[in-house]
């Protein structure tokens, strides 16, 4: 099943929570979502150990979409400590983050591997949430557009338009992730329009419907301006996704901004 709404607010819990806190956070999100069916898709990406519990809580109604934070590019095999896409599918996980800057930076995940992960996810019917974005030096030197275009072409260039139509893309300027710095609404709007144009070059008109999310220190205080960007279709939220009320406020803001 794919995300039903084009406006998406996704929470990336990274390596945070334990069983008790994950349980409580999931309960709060699922209860809110059941009471507030709306036009925003809520996606939650807990750590691997809590995915099964998360899928069970989200239930078959699919009001909350459960995503993994990573997967392996091979189907299965002798890869100690890794998690394969068929495993995720078999427990009902519907989506997976790929190409997050933390994985690029700390685990050497480069575009060729990312491209293979995306292919594997699509093969098994999981929706890839593909992250791209420039670092601080690339922003300051003015090379950021080229950098992001290059990431997109290398990771997505081997896909046919029908595959690109199944993606969610997240623009996450690395200098804004977990730093408290955020792109201004103008910077976000500009990059989202740029990414949309790149996607359309690769895939034609179907790329107009691909949700492009903003990520990087997004919180209720700055989300309204960012979400107003024409080509901003919601957010990928890290730190602010760990507190139910804050995350739900971001869902509400996205709903309010995108209704008009
Ligand atoms: P942040 O993380 O909201 O904590 O900056 C965003 C992300 O890395 O997806």
Relevant terms:
260 residues; alpha/beta; TIM Barrel; 8-stranded parallel barrel; 44% helix; globular; binds 2-phosphoglycolic acid
Layout: helices, strands, pairs:
Layout: E1 7-12, H1 19-35, E2 40-45, H2 51-58, E3 64-68, H3 85-90, E4 95-98, H4 101-107, H5 111-123, E5 127-132, H6 136-140, H7 144-156, H8 161-164, E6 168-171, H9 185-203, E7 212-215, H10 220-227, E8 234-237, H11 244-258
Parallel strand pairs: 1-2, 1-8, 2-3, 3-4, 4-5, 5-6, 6-7, 7-8
Helix pairs in contact: 1-2, 5-7, 7-9, 10-11
Residue share in helix = 40-55%
**What radius of gyration results from the CA coordinates?**
17 Å
**Pairing-aware structural class of the strands and helices?**
alpha/beta
Question: Can you identify the CATH superfamily?
Answer: Aldolase class I
**Ligands (ions, cofactors included):** 2-phosphoglycolic acid
Beta-strand share of residues: 15-25%
Q: Catalogue the unreliable spans.
A: none
SSE run:
EHEHEHEHHEHHHEHEHEH
What is the level-2 CATH architecture name?
A: Alpha-Beta Barrel
- With strands numbered from the N-terminus, the spatial order across the biggest sheet is 1-2-3-4-5-6-7-8
Q: Report how far apart the termini are.
A: 27 Å
What does this structure look like?
By secondary structure, the protein is of the alpha/beta class. It has a single domain, classed as Aldolase class I (TIM Barrel). It has eleven helices and eight strands. Strands 1-2-3-4-5-6-7-8 form an eight-stranded parallel beta barrel, surrounded by seven helices. Strand 7 (212-215), helix 10 (220-227) and strand 8 (234-237) form a beta-alpha-beta unit. Helix 5 packs across helix 7 (144-156) and helix 7 runs parallel beside helix 9. It is globular and about 45 Å long. The chain starts with 6 loop residues before the first strand and ends with a helix. The model has no long low-confidence stretch (mean pLDDT 95). It binds 2-phosphoglycolic acid.
């Amino acid at each position: 099943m794919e995300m039903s709404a084009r406006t998406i607010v996704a929470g990336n819990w990274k390596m945070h929570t334990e069983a008790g806190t994950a349980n409580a956070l999931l309960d709060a999100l699922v209860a809110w979502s059941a009471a507030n069916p709306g036009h925003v898709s809520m996606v939650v990406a807990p750590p691997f150990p809590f995915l099964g519990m998360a899928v069970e809580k989200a239930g078959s109604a699919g009001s909350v979409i459960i995503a993994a934070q990573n997967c392996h590019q091979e189907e299965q095999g002798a890869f100690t400590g890794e998690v394969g896409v068929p495993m995720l599918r078999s427990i009902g996980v519907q989506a997976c983050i790929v190409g997050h800057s933390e994985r690029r930076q700390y685990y050497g995940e480069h575009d060729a591997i990312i491209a293979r992960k995306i292919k594997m996810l699509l093969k098994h019917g999981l929706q890839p949430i593909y992250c791209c974005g420039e670092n601080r030096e690339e922003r300051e030197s003015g090379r950021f557009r080229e950098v992001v275009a290059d990431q997109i072409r290398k990771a997505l260039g081997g896909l046919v338009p029908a595959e690109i139509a199944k993606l969610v893309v997240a623009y996450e300027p690395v200098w804004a992730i977990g730093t408290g710095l955020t792109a201004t609404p103008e910077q976000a709007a500009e990059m989202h329009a740029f990414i949309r144009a790149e996607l359309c070059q690769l895939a034609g008109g179907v790329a107009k419907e691909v949700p492009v999310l903003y990520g990087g220190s997004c919180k209720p205080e700055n989300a309204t301006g960012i979400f107003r960007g024409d080509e901003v279709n919601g957010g990928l939220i890290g730190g602010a996704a760990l507190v139910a009320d804050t995350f739900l406020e971001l869902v509400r803001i996205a709903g309010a901004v995108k209704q008009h």
